[in-house]
Inverse folding.
């Protein structure tokens, strides 16, 4: 079953990773992905040959655009949400791209519900990582959501006396 919005998020993480590795305007990265990476390859199915099939192109472009244009603000938010011993620069570049993409979506007050964004990026984290990274993603996005959209978050549980 195709999941265009999830696939757009996967492509956004890949594009943000690429944008960090190759110094070129993010508009060029978006255009390159639209032309060469989004949609199924003619001779392959699924995610073959580095392509992302059935991606929602508008969502992809919106995430990458927001994450790049607002990177300084997003990085500051992520720094606040990360543990002091794990500065943003220390993270794996794919993990950094994933957190920036998720933060871009969470920073939109009219964006998808917090739980949808967190669940989607947890799925993406599980696609890229098989260690403790998905737990880190969950914790960071939960703290970020509480800061950006407190009205959508349930209060943290307090320990019983």
């Amino acid at each position: 079953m195709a999941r265009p919005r999830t696939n757009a998020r996967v492509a956004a993480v890949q594009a943000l990773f690429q944008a960090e590795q190759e110094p070129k305007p993010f508009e060029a990265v978006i255009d390159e992905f639209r032309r060469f990476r989004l949609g199924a390859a003619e001779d392959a199915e699924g995610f073959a040959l580095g392509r992302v099939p059935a991606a929602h192109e508008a969502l992809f472009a919106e995430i990458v655009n927001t994450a790049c244009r607002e990177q300084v603000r997003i990085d500051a938010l992520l720094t606040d949400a990360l543990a002091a011993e794990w500065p943003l620069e220390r993270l794996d570049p794919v993990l950094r791209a994933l957190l920036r993409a998720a933060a871009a979506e969470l920073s939109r007050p009219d964006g998808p519900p917090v739980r949808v964004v967190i669940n989607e990026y947890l799925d993406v984290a599980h696609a890229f990582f098989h260690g403790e990274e998905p737990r880190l993603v969950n914790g960071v996005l939960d703290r970020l959501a509480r800061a950006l959209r407190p009205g959508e978050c349930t209060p943290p549980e307090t320990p019983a006396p």
